[in-house]
Amino acid sequence: MGSEMCIRDSFGPEILQPDGQLDRKKLGAIVFTDAQARADLGRITHPRIAQASQAAIAAAADAGAGIVFYEAALLVENGLHRNLDAVVVVAVPVQVQLQRLVQRDQLPLEAAEARIAAQLPLSEKLEAATWVIDNRHDPQALRREVERVVSAIEQRFGPIVRLGPAIAGAATQGDSEGERDRKDDSEGDRDRAATEGEREGAAPPA
User: Fold this and answer.
1) pLDDT tens, residue by residue, 35-61
2) How far apart are CA 172 and CA 175, in angstroms?
3) C-alpha–C-alpha distance, residues 85 and 88, integer Å
4) Of 73, 95, 127, 204, which one is least surrounded by beta carbons within 10 A?
5) Dihedral sign from CA coordinates of 16, 21, 22, 24
6) How many other CB atoms are there within 10 angstroms of residue 78's CB atom?
7) What is the three-class DSSP state of 60?
């Protein structure tokens, strides 16, 4: 059974859109205010994410990639960083994060605060970081930060190679069942991930 069907069975028809697809905003409103619901969702999605991730990483390695980026919203919370060679944390002060979350997702302040409270404090994520990207300023400053960290990654691990659409597609297909986790292997994806919010990206072993 696919994860979306399992989610429907677990959370009921109220999390569906009129066309039968998952309403991710409604689902998010539930899981970010209910720890048990969040755990239930994790039990459905995490094994599938892990399976799809391993397949995508293996495909990238077979295609000659020396570095694979694994980008996930709850990387440190779920302990996934322990199996990776390095971790990049994209960080901003909490007040900036709140403001951006409210503006981007059109959330009430209370809902935005609940989403942030469901995650580890930034200070704990920074302890796990190999590199930190400061995302508090404008897009031009962010790009400079990304370029700085990319340069450091390449100095440590070697050149970053952009793979073909077949490999990227395999990663994206796996993530369609994983809600918010995503594997990125292109410079454009790294920039997009950095602008989306406070995420952790990491370089798994080849």
Assistant:
1) 899 899 989 988 888 899 899 989 988
2) 5
3) 11
4) 95
5) negative
6) 15
7) helix
